[in-house]
Amino acid sequence: ENSNSNTVLGNTANNNTGWGIHLIFSSYNTISGNTATNNDYGIHLEWGCDNNTVSGNTANNNTYYGIYLTGFLFTFFDNCDNNTISGNTLNDNLIGIYLVYSDNNVIYNNTILYHDLGILLLSDSDRNKIWENYVYINTNVSISISSATCNENNIERNIIVNDGGKFISDFGTDTLINLNYFGKTPPSFVINVIAQSFSSIIFNITIKISSELNFGTRELSIQMWWNGILVPSNDIEDIGNSLFNISLTPIFVEPGENPILLNMTLGAPYHKDKSFETYITVDPDVILGDDSTGGEEIPGYSIFFIGLTAVGTIGLIYVIFKRKQQI
Hints:
By secondary structure, the protein is mainly beta. 0% of the residues lie in helices and 50% in strands.
């Protein structure tokens, strides 16, 4: 109580009756890297706790709330305001993050799993920002603004996965809800081939990787194998706008031989990993004296391109060059 500008770092606060970590009338503190499990309340900021940072903590299996901010009904200056709650992992509490009489807080980039309510705002909690959280399988409501006295809160760019309960329940006033993902399963990826060229020196393929999110993807991971050999990361170039240029060592296929497999696995935080397969057959006779198809028609040859088709979680792309029949 009345403790300011402190750091609470790396503690284990488990199996307590009452609180794991509890601050009252305390501001400008950092609560980071702690574990608060199997308590009544995980991390509780109460009455006049302002400008604190609660980040990178784990609060699991607490009877009531993982992280709880509560002001006081009758004294304006006893609200919990201007706190940042970010990067925490909350699992299987009754409520993940709960705000009451708390204004201008930022709830950002938290992982909130398997609660009755994921995030709950109640009673004069105004102008809070709920951004870019991963809210997964919360049985009642994922995010709830439960009172008309909660004004001008912002729910934006959250990934909300729920196979039974509501995604968002909003009884607030002037709530902004924008660019959130709603689904029964985590978001995945779509891939399209934009361009391809083949020469005796290099094979180039340009692909566009799109997330099912409508607000972009952070930390995209691409692993790729060409004929069973890992493609070096510096041969997969991010050229912007979700486009990637892939440079491959040429492997030619004679008529009657099997095509060469290019396969890839895509991943990103809070996404469902997805695998794609690409089969490429290039007849060596297609490569002429200029060492390039150049995307032009080649006399005596047909060029067939069969675009992306989905087969379950697998995409198949065939780029096939074959000789025309001689007449």
